[in-house]
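Dear support,

I submitted the protein below through the web form. The confirmation email said the job was done, but the results page showed an empty box. After a refresh the structure appeared. I'm attaching both so you can tell me whether what I see now is the final result or a partial one.
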Amino acid sequence: MRRIKSFENDGPALYVIATPIGNMADITLRAIEVLKQVDVVFAEDTRVSGQLLKHHGIDTPLKSYYAHNEREKSNEALGLLFSGKQVALISDAGTPRLSDPGDILVRTIRDNNFPVVPIPGASALLSALMMSAIPAETFTFVGFLPHKTSAKETRLKSLVNVKHSLVFYETPHRIEKTLNSMYDLLGNRQATLMRELTKQHEEVIEFTLGEAATLDNLRGEMVLIVEGNTETSPLNEDDMIDHVDLLIEDGYKEKDAIKHVASTRNVKKNTVYMAYQSHKKRTQSKE
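What the results page shows now:
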């Protein structure tokens, strides 16, 4: 067990700060204040973040922090904290760690008992849920689907029986294939696509997945919300097993993957456990 109070003293801390997703005005007063006060800001793209900081009169030094240098920069940030410096993390837009780098940095800082302080603000995920007519009380945030077709289809299959809304991020050059795959694997569900959130050309498109082929001129950053499974379908053991395997590939321990699948599919954990153990025995017997 570990308990860390964020504001117990004025010592060094990592501040994880949400930044605008389009409209430069969508930044909190607290975020501006903290960005001015910290010693270093780690940013996904220093060119993009440099424009934001300049717009708000912030001259704090910027350092890069992106997918391919996360471990190196996490150690650098940790060193700064040990030397008594205050550090901030921002992404290109929105809330860090939601389909953006930051997991390794936060874990590194936590493991060394420094506070990690959230400065909430803009989020494409929450903005989309606010404006969509699809139920938002419970949802699964999927983020970006895998690039490879086989991996994408496996991920979608694992979501077939999820009852609550599904939230995805997508890009213009992939959206057509993604919608086609969703229609093939999820069926003709209600969907809402929101693009260019908070920007001049903000648009909301409500449709069924069966109508996706008629969509055109889809540009800009997108959030896609698809309704959950509204049908009562028989338990599919193969889908459960595929779901467990997928989570294990993503780094889950087997018991945690089984627990997650049981919770997501609203079935007993022992049902998933027995199905997966039988699958393992069949696989081993073939080797």
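Response: this is the final, complete result; the empty box was a page-load delay. The chain has a mean pLDDT of 92.
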